[in-house]
């Protein structure tokens, strides 16, 4: 079943297929200048009794668990992955951007080093939709759960070869993040326009990112694994799901996979 073209919306109602009450699916962006929740989202949060994000973000052990998975396996370091010249370049870049010598952070997976620089892509104080959603859930005295464990999420970054991860980092260093900033701006514009189709096209076409090359690991396989969990939660109670917007569109996106299972998934406009 081909995915139909999606309307411009980040919030979707899941109903039918034996569900007693509607659940909601909201596409987040993990980093933005303004994470205010609009009225439709607030109403959906009022009408649900559980918040489920990609990870259980109010789990007190989350940071500790995360830290366990940020290092490369088998004592590998960036020095093993690049030539001498590129190593020098990365050293200067990391010192400049995160204020640490490469000898101290060289054993961290390149993906996580790239992520440390994400806040620099925005010229503002970074806000997150996940945090805003958690605030509301706590006000409503509701639980926050996750669709995957930290271990499962970390395995994603183990499945993408370190060589590919370091390619992204090196590209950022070579143009001093100019490409990253431009790409992120484009992504934010599409997100603010609620254009899931546009985001999907952008993901498919960006040949520079290892995440595009490994879309199956980053998105498709995870979406597939989430469906059963989304069904389980929704059958028990009206649930509000908040996951990265890139997970929603496309043939292997969460919206299409739920529709294939017989649910009605419609845009809240």
Automatic annotation (TrEMBL):
CDD domains linked: Tiki
UniProt protein name: GumN family protein
Database matches in InterPro entries: TraB/PrgY/GumN_fam, YbaP-like
Source species, domain of life: Bacteria
